[in-house]
Write a structure and sequence with these properties.
This protein has 2 helices and 8 strands. By secondary structure, the protein is of the alpha+beta class.
Length: 132
């Protein structure tokens, strides 16, 4: 399964956005506060509980300065996945989008596709708000 968000403008240079997203504690600011709990972070990544008690770990795998951050599922994830944050410089600002890839069966895809898409839309809007 591959989910891609639309590219969205962020009112900050790519370097500033990259630095913000490279610090796992800042991921909490992007998440919907009414749908997550038990957020934890360290230099390797972060984890939180989503509605329904599912633990979602995000572990940094690679960082390409100012252009791409790749995170993967951790040990307690319900399935394996990769979340990529892609940034593109556009003058004094940038735009970005998310790409989520998971190796899951059709039944699981039907269960998680809509909630994940909604989560990514909220994360994108909250990132934009961080730099207004």
């Amino acid at each position: 399964m591959l989910l891609k968000t639309d590219s969205s403008p962020v009112n900050a240079p790519a370097q500033k956005v990259f630095e913000f997203l490279s610090d796992a504690k800042n991921i909490e600011h992007l998440l919907p506060t009414d749908k997550i709990s038990d957020f934890q972070s360290d230099e390797k990544g972060c984890s939180f509980k989503a509605q329904g008690g599912i633990v979602i770990p995000l572990i940094y795998v690679s960082k390409e300065p100012n252009t791409k951050i790749v995170m993967e599922s951790g040990d307690k994830a319900p399935f394996s996945y990769t979340l990529s944050i892609i940034l593109k410089e556009t003058g004094d600002t940038c735009e970005g989008h998310l790409e989520f890839e998971a190796n899951i069966n059709m039944f699981m895809k039907m269960m998680v596709e809509k909630p994940l898409t909604s989560l990514f839309v909220v994360m994108t809007k909250n990132l934009q708000k961080q730099f207004e």
